[in-house]
Amino acid sequence: MHVGPTNSGKTHNALRALAAARTGAYAGPLRLLAHEIWERLNKGQIIPAGVDVTKEEVDEDPEINFDVGPQPVIRKDVDKRYARPCNMVTGEEQKIVDLNATLISCTVEMLPVGRRFDVAVIDEIQLLGDSDRGGAWLRALLAVNAEEVHLCGEETAVPLVRSLLGATGDEIVVNRYERLTPLRVEDESLKGDLTKVKKGDCLVAFSRKQVFAMRKRIEQLNGVRCAVAYGRLPPELRSEQAALFNDPDSGYDVLVGTDAIGMGLNLKIKRIILKSVSKFNGVRKVPLSSSQIKQIAGRAGRYGLHGDNAGGFATTLEQSDLATLREALAEPFKPLKEARLTLFNPTYQAISKVLPRSAGVLTIADVMFYVSKLHPTCELEEMQKTRKLFSFLTELQGDLTVSDQMVLQLAPAPTADLATQHALRVAARMYSENLRVKLMDLLKNANLLGDYKEAVHVVARRKEGWNYQGALDALETTHKVIVMYLWLSYRLPVGFMDQEEAFKLRDSVEKAMQDCLELISAVEGNQKKHKKPVVSGEKVAFKTRAQVYAEAVQRRAQNAQAASQPTYAQPHSGAKADKPSTATQ
């Protein structure tokens, strides 16, 4: 285990061990991180363990999105000496560099636990306790088939991991890391005065609505441009906004975001400002935990970005919240109490075999919930969030197999996102009735196509006074549904057949969203277009899973054709060749 606070360099040794492994896997929380590891391994930019280099010998990449330390880990330039073929597999995208590649980079849900590895890296292990995705980390921890497993994350996960692995016989070695730069709480808050916001600041709010309200106010008062980062924004656009904020010449001097700013982004934040120390949880306002406050405030003063020992600062917008911030940062980490257990398809299939054929996923889930015996440190995922969807799928069960229902239930459609949930229900009904779902038909039947076209029209015309905020909302929803469609296209490829069209439309929507963010601004003037790749250098050549499949089909057809041609036995050396018979001819 490699544990420590933000900006402690805890992923340093894990990444180097992975780069040196004969076979290995990286499993992380975000597609953006999986993509970065995939690209850097293929380009040889991660210095393998056992290779001794000094900082003077390596031109380090300042755009690294991982928590690495003062020793050189990531090169800026391509180094073919260390290049390793690596494939990428995430829920919505697969990039195949080599079918025989021995390295894989993936999101944690896609970790192939049936495959043997020398080294596996599981990032952000503290997400074991996450109410929505924790089950994926638990599965990865207990089922990964590796000689050596590197777990990177917070100190909070150590007791829980020890308890879970107590019966496995695994040896656990805990490496603890200290923060590389100091983090200081300022003596005063902003006292509600947004004119005190300055270059290098990041204001953290807790809803998309608050983010845009704060952005507008700061731009009006201070005449500076603000980059934004929030959960509904696609990872690629969050990375682009981060690049704008990091570039001192872009004109984007301030970042306004939700608590989604932290994971997977390289941010040159000098000072974190908390708008509040509580947030709405969907039912009521609840105080932030000390762990959440530590995670957010710890983003300030990343090592090497403001001078090696410059450090970072944290404060609050309101004076009444400053004491809470100070107490939270001084408080020791509270250990995680329990890990989440997710209902995976094999479990559903096993339970369904002992139930009547008419039993749907809702009945199967209830059996799992009420009959299961769990490890004392495990808790089943919350059923209330998915119960309505279970009920809906049960209504369609006459036309859907249990396996189909399970796939649809797991599709990435957050329960709080009503539009995406509606689109999932529409997709499920279309699939149950026709066994095929075309992308544009889905958008039309979910009442999204008209709003999407109108949003694209509004952004393209770029007229002053138009409702760009409404256009952005429509584009975000469309993007969520496209991502959901891509996810389903990998699991039900015959039914969700428009994968190539979905990729093209996703790229178009992201471009329109980027333009829309540019237009929603209170500051006039031309701004620098900044399309900065996460990793520099030449692109990595790859094939999609569909291309690999198409080539395999083509080869099979060619082999079948070759096998159907007449062949003649070759005579042994020195033997007299016989003339083929008429029948053979």
Brief write-up:
With 585 residues, this protein is an alpha/beta fold.
Secondary-structure map with pairings?
Layout: E1 2-3, H1 12-20, E2 24-28, H2 31-43, E3 86-89, E4 94-95, E5 103-107, E6 116-122, H3 134-143, E7 145-153, H4 158-164, E8 175-176, E9 183-185, E10 201-204, H5 208-222, E11 225-229, H6 235-246, E12 252-257, E13 271-274, E14 278-280, E15 285-287, H7 290-297, E16 312-316, H8 322-330, E17 339-341, H9 345-352, H10 361-371, E18 378-380, H11 384-395, H12 402-410, H13 418-434, H14 439-445, H15 449-461, H16 468-491, H17 499-519, H18 545-564
Parallel strand pairs: 1-7, 1-8, 2-5, 2-6, 3-5, 6-7, 9-16, 10-12, 10-13, 11-12, 13-16, 17-18
Antiparallel strand pairs: 3-4, 14-15
Percent of residues in helices comes to 25-40%
Note the beta-strand portion. 5-15%
Segments where pLDDT lies below 50 for 5+ residues? Answer: 524-536, 571-585
Main sheet makeup: 8 strands, mixed
Anisotropy-based shape:
globular
Number of domains: 3
CA gyration radius, whole angstroms: 26 Å
| Intertermini distance | 70 Å
Number of strands: 18
Structural class computed from helices and strand pairing: alpha/beta
Number of DSSP helical runs = 18
Primary descriptors:
globular, Rossmann fold, 13% strand, 585 residues, eight-stranded mixed beta sheet, 38% helix, six-stranded parallel beta sheet, alpha/beta
